[in-house]
């Protein structure tokens, strides 16, 4: 028999049992579709983490106040970061390109009849560039505004909506922060929540000196954000920060630090590892469906061999070789898996798009995942089709002709 004729006979056999073929493919369809959707969800979450790292700034370090220690035991008093610490870092740390002090408090903000409670952040003008913000309306306050302690404010992107107002219409208008009037001079770009209770889009920036002397009356900083020169300098920058602050806080050798240095990329890297674990876990669970679908194909193919025993005997009697019979049944198994895999890819991709649009989940359809799922479905067809095909090819023609 010619190969073309063998393939035609195999396809006719599948066409003769359309419903059974469809039900046989169902396991492969569900398996491939689930794999594509789950990997799309995992890849989307991974991409979201990478976007967060870029949004935060991959070279940023945050310094937070810690606890003082006496003979290795933490005391109940928290040690504050002050403007002196900020100045010491700016003057003595060689591997830092920027130092941004951040003085903040949750305060009532009023505009007309609207009243909200948001984070008011006293900081310096380089806060915008260090934290990768752009100004979407008007401008950022300047060093001159800071030195003159001017009452100007830059709003986070979500604040205009919280105040039921238009972003552009608020420029030049006044808001009341702790009953003190501030002129709105700009609006920040949207950053998005960074996976914590603090949403940077729901904050208001004011000049640091204004916050210290007009609003909050303290120089105790919530934290200091520093920017390393480059990624290669991150470890050296952390060592420099520790050296400068230990000297500034008069910490003796052997004593624990009374401050914390957090590398934001490390935090998000942990989140990314967790996301990877869940992605592979979900893909593994979905791959079980492919295994179950392959077993279903093997089962149906064995039934098919039994049903067509007499037909196989007739073909062998007419000159069909063992290879011809083996190839025919392998083609049937492969077609079932490949068609099922193609339908599964379409359903999985559609499912990922639906989840993205309706549930607003982060999804990313990977061409590599589609290729792997398709190849795996073909491998399943070969693996589970070999045993039924070999069984059909090894039938004795005389016994097959006698089979009823």
Order of helices and strands: HHEEEHEEHEHEHHEEEHEHEHHHHH
- Average pLDDT figure: 83
Overall tally of domains? 2
Shape label: elongated
Distance between the termini: 25 Å
- What is the overall number of helices? 14
Largest sheet: 6 strands, mixed, barrel
* Secondary structural class: alpha+beta
* Strands, count: 12
Going across the major beta sheet, what is the strand order? 4-5-10-7-9-8
Relative helix content:
55-70%
Question: What does this molecule look like?
Answer:
- With 404 residues, the chain is an alpha+beta fold.
- It is built from 14 helices and twelve strands.
- It has two domains: 3-52 and 269-402, no CATH class; 80-248, no CATH class.
- The strands form two sheets. Strands 4-5-10-7-9-8 form a six-stranded mixed beta barrel. Strands 2-3 form a two-stranded antiparallel ribbon.
- Helix 10 runs parallel beside helix 13.
In summary, what is this structure?
This protein has about 400 residues and is an alpha+beta fold.
Main attributes of the structure:
alpha+beta, 404 residues, 14 helices, 56% helix, elongated, 2 domains, six-stranded mixed barrel
């Amino acid at each position: 028999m010619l190969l073309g004729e063998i393939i035609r006979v195999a396809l006719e056999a599948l066409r003769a049992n359309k419903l059974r073929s469809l039900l046989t493919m169902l396991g492969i369809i569900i398996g491939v579709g689930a794999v594509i959707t789950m990997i799309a969800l995992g890849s989307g979450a991974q991409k979201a983490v990478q976007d967060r790292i870029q949004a935060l700034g991959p070279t940023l370090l945050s310094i937070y106040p810690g606890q003082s220690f006496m003979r290795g035991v933490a005391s109940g008093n928290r040690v504050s970061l002050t403007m002196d610490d900020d100045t010491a870092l700016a003057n003595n740390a060689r591997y830092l390109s920027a130092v941004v002090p951040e003085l903040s408090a949750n305060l009532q903000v009023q505009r007309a009849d609207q009243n909200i409670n948001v984070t008011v952040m006293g900081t310096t003008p380089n806060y915008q560039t260090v934290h990768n913000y752009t100004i979407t309306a008007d401008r950022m306050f300047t060093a001159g505004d800071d030195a003159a302690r001017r009452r100007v404010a830059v709003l986070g992107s979500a604040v205009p909506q919280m105040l039921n107002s238009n972003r552009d219409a608020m420029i030049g208008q006044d808001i009341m922060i702790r009953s003190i009037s501030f002129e709105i001079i700009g609006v920040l770009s949207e950053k998005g929540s960074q996976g914590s209770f603090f949403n940077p889009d729901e904050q208001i920036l004011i000049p640091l000196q204004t916050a210290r002397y007009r609003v909050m009356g303290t120089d105790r900083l919530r934290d200091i954000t520093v920017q390393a020169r480059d990624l290669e300098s991150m470890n050296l920058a952390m060592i420099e920060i520790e050296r400068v602050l230990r000297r500034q806080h008069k910490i003796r050798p052997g004593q624990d630090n009374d401050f914390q240095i957090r590398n934001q990329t490390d935090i998000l890297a942990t989140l990314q590892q967790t996301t990877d674990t869940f992605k592979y876990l979900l893909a593994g669970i979905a791959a079980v469906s492919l295994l179950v679908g392959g077993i279903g194909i093997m089962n149906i193919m064995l039934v098919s061999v039994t049903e067509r025993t007499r037909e196989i005997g007739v073909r062998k009697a007419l000159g069909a070789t063992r290879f011809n019979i083996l190839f025919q049944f392998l083609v049937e198994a492969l077609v079932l898996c490949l068609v099922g895999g193609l339908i599964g890819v379409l359903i999985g991709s559609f499912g990922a798009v639906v989840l993205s649009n309706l549930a607003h989940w982060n999804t990313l359809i990977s061409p590599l995942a589609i290729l792997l799922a398709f190849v795996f479905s073909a491998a399943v067809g070969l693996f589970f089709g070999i045993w039924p095909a070999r069984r059909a090819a090894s039938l004795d023609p005389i016994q097959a002709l006698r089979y009823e």
